[in-house]
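Attaching the record inline, Q. Sequence:
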Amino acid sequence: MPLQTLTDATFARRTRRVPALILLSNGGDKLRSDFKTAFVKAADEEDGIFFAQVDPASNPQLCERFDYQDKALLIGSYRGQALLRRSRPWSSDLPDFIQQLHDAREADEPPAKPVKPAKPKRKLLSKPMDVSDATFEKDAIAASHDMPVLVDFWAEWCGPCRQVAPILEKLAAEFAGQIRVVKVDTDANPGLSQAFQIRSIPTIAMFKAGQLIFMQPGALPEASFRDLINQAIALEVPAADAPAG
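Structure, as predicted:
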């Protein structure tokens, strides 16, 4: 910002929060012309430091505060306290004063809190998702640490499975963001059929916090599915260890 004028009355208000470079000069105290030029130029170019000049004849309090002795005096101030001083300053003094004032402000600022990497969010599903022997661990069990996962074990030739399918389509959309609905084709995924001992289809299962909390064969009516979902959402389950990755 442009060079400012500072007075006894405005000193506390203008410098209490920012680093300041303050020049006390009466115009006849042999202030070097090259310094004056460099000081004005730095005021225009430097961000974060308040540049000001003081007329000693009109501001006795600042003269006393900084012990002005009829020679041009440069003061480096932070929070109203004089940290640096140079009588009859040179233009070569400016870079060092500026750097030291920046360092004083940075040392005074609280350290930035480390930013924790955001936990990757699982994809929000509004319709049932097909899972397999290979993806069941990630898309059902691991996903249940974020929200309950309803699993529909089904097969293409199963009539009751076709009756359940539109109900699950509807509830997956209605409870999107609260539950996840996944489907396992038992014919295409014999590993899961064996692991969960699927003897008839459809079989409905529910996982939460990495644990199996419900499993029952047979087609359920919509009202029963809705009750199951609401109970799973409300149920407090101690979390099992989440799988790595």
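Residues 93-108 form the longest helix (16 residues). The longest strand covers residues 81-87.

More tomorrow.
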